[in-house]
Amino acid sequence: QVQLVESGGGLVQAGGSLRLSCVASGRSVSWNAMAWFRQAPGKEREFVGGMSWGGGRTDYADSVKGRFTVSRDNAKDTVYLQMNKLKPEDTATYYCATSPSGYSTIYTRDYEYPYWGQGTQVTVSS
User: Fold this and answer.
1) 36 near 96, Cβ under 8 Å?
2) Is residue 71 within 8 Å of 82, Cβ to Cβ?
3) How far apart are alpha carbons 123 and 20 in whole angstroms?
4) What is the spatial distance between Cα 3 and Cα 57, in angstroms, rounded to a whole number?
5) Span 32-47, mean pLDDT?
6) Residue of 28, 31, 27, 24 whose CA lies nearest to 6
7) With bands split at pLDDT 50, 70 and 90, how would you rate the model's confidence at 55?
8) Burial of 77 per CB tally in 10 Å (0-12, 13-18, 19+)
9) What phi-psi label fits residue 55: left (phi over 0), alpha (psi between -120 and 50 degrees) or beta?
10) Do 22 and 96 meet the contact criterion of CB atoms below 8 Å apart?
């Protein structure tokens, strides 16, 4: 089993930045795809960005490309989401997820991830 704990959420003004962290425990996630999803009230959970365990491959939702960056530190079993130029529409609960995967695989659908964190709230004021 893998446990994931997110941190770094908060309240920020539009145009500001936040950095989310997700620490894994229980088992190493060095050979897992790691991803961030978000869910706003009344909306479905959506893929934000992810990173493969091999090759440094990343993938992002169109809505965050150029503003958000996913990175990982396998030595610390930690994945990060750097969020810049935040907009009010980025307001949501952000979840970290992980799944065993192939070398350069990134899953973009939530059902492909068996392990999830509890979420951290990000609120962007206008």
Assistant:
1) yes
2) yes
3) 13
4) 23
5) 97
6) 24
7) confident
8) buried
9) left
10) yes
